[in-house]
Amino acid sequence: MSKLADLIWKNAELLRGAYRENEYRKVILPFTILRRLDCVLAPKREEVYTQYEALRNSKYDMEKILTTISDYPFFNTSRFSLEALAQTPDDVRDNLEAMVNGFSQNVRDIFEKFGFISTINKLEEKGRLYLVVQRFAETDLNPDVVSNHDMGMAFEELLRKFNDVSPAGEQYTPRDVIELMVSLLFSTDQDLLSIPGIVKTMYDPTAGTGGLLSVGEEYVKRMNDRAVLSLFGQELEDETYAICKADMLIRGQNPANIVNEDTLKIDLLAGEVFDYQAANPPYGVEWKPAEDAVRREHKLGAAGRFAPGLPAIRDGQMLFSLHLLSKMRPFIDGKGGGRIGVVHNGSPLFAGDAGSGESEIRRYIMANDYLEAIVAMPTDLFYNTNIQTYLWFMTNRKPEKRQGKVMLLDASKMGVLMKKNLGKKRREFTEDCIAQINKAYEDFKDMTWKDPAGERVLNAKVFDNAHFHYRKVTIERPLRMRFQLTDFARDAVLGNPSFAKLPLEQRHLVGCLLDVFDSTAVFTNADDFRSALNAAADQVATTQQLTGKASRLTAKSIELLRKTIGVKDPKADITTDEKGSVISDSDLRDAEYVPMNKDVDAYFESEVKPHWPDAWINKEVVDSQDGVVGVVGTEINFNREFYVYKPPRSREEIAADIEAKEKKFMEMLKAIKGGEKDESLS
What we know:
- The protein contains 27 helices and 20 strands.
- It is α/β, with parallel strands linked by helices.
- Among the domains are: 1-167, Ferritin (Up-down Bundle), CATH 1.20.1260; 481-568, no CATH class; 649-682.
- The strands form five sheets. The chain has a ten-stranded mixed sheet, with helices on both faces.
- α11 runs parallel beside α19 and α20 (487-495) crosses α24 (555-565).
- Mean pLDDT is 91; it is low at 166-170.
């Protein structure tokens, strides 16, 4: 609701000179919440105060009595309102503090997170406090005038405005994206949620201002006004946590269900499981601050949240997916179960090679048949980033027709251009867009939908889970080396750290051997080179009358000489060790990514052997879970699945295009020359 946000934003004009622009939020956000709570409690303010004064010295449970009177899970026992404070400029600072302290503890906690008392003190010091109180007292935030939905949108718009002038940006989920996400999250449960009196739970581990939670509740209420959706959330950032908690209080939700801490570091709702979960975790943010806690839980295996694997430290998105899965209500004997919707950028689809933490997390999700669908969304959809994003939907209670399958929905061409950009947000989903995506999601079949202009706008494909798995098979090729004892090679042997570690008698033998070895001889066969080395060693032993171990080269000495003197030569014979086993060339080592439905040996014979006849499969590299040759990897490549080939233009078309441009250029040039001529005549 941009008009309301603009109205509130104008109050920041009073702060110029006293605050830097990026500090306005410290004043505007808590005062907006204060005014909203003030308006919400206004109808029962006097009644609450009267009852409080009558019972304040009794042993009754004041919280239970006063929340019953206020009709909300919070109250205020002071005599003050912002309207009253605006009428009495004297002692406005003390009276405002008394008003804040008059709230129940769950509201005082909100203002403590904002450091509101310090803000009041600074405003008083700068001579702006009374002016700010006056201005906000004139701002009507009564629930009859401003709905919870509109208030939530106004908060998000304010945060976006503050974010634009803040040095460190944060990501907020636009309402159109939330509407799409929530509608898909609940789309397959409409019959269940229509049951009168049904009670369900919803959780967001990166709750922000509570947008996903509040829209989720509104969606369910529209579907069934007798349904109850209890909301839970955890949020790291103090200010957004405070806004979220205030919104939940006004909605009549239990404020204890909204907690303030780093979700990856500690789960403050441990032991709780939920029917529905939704999240927009940060993209590309290091999980270094929570690393110790995350690694401890990883070591716990199934008893922790992060058993399947750990992604690279630079990006913790997939840790949030594991956290969500750990809090999904179990599906037992056809009852319970949960559904999850989470926003990711592209990296969780394919980041990490086979065996990496990211791949293992995707493998775990697929192995348990949790992934139901992924929706590719357009770029320019979020306020602070124009990257492409994806909606993942996971569940442990797939209907039969969806079991063992995953739907990919390419909606990257959907959405309409906005009349006015909001930060980097240039596109938005209309109700028609959301309805069309929902229909494709519910149909769960291959389809293509085109707009009236005939453009492919929405494309859906359904795949078996196995389609996204492959085996990374290590391919070896033989080492080929040429040997000649040059001066450089001699110095390399004597200067090699491994030479210094040889026993004294071996160092003596090798040193003498280098003096008698034929430096003109060139060997392209490793066996011939070893024979020549042993012959030279025998010559030294005979000349110096060496006996026993001192007269023979050990395997380590021969290996040192082979590695140090030899140089790679593709024309040389295949290099073998003393036992006759072929030595692989690590520089030529490669990997083949074999689809899971292909036989590895057959694939090797048809795809590798024709190009590298001397190659072989390294049978020692096996998967840690199934023990089969080749490490299992899992990736979801949207670009590959939805690639549409466009043939290049013909030569004739290109030539015609060039000719047309040349003609246009010549006409422009003639016009310029004609203008110069006319000017000279004048």
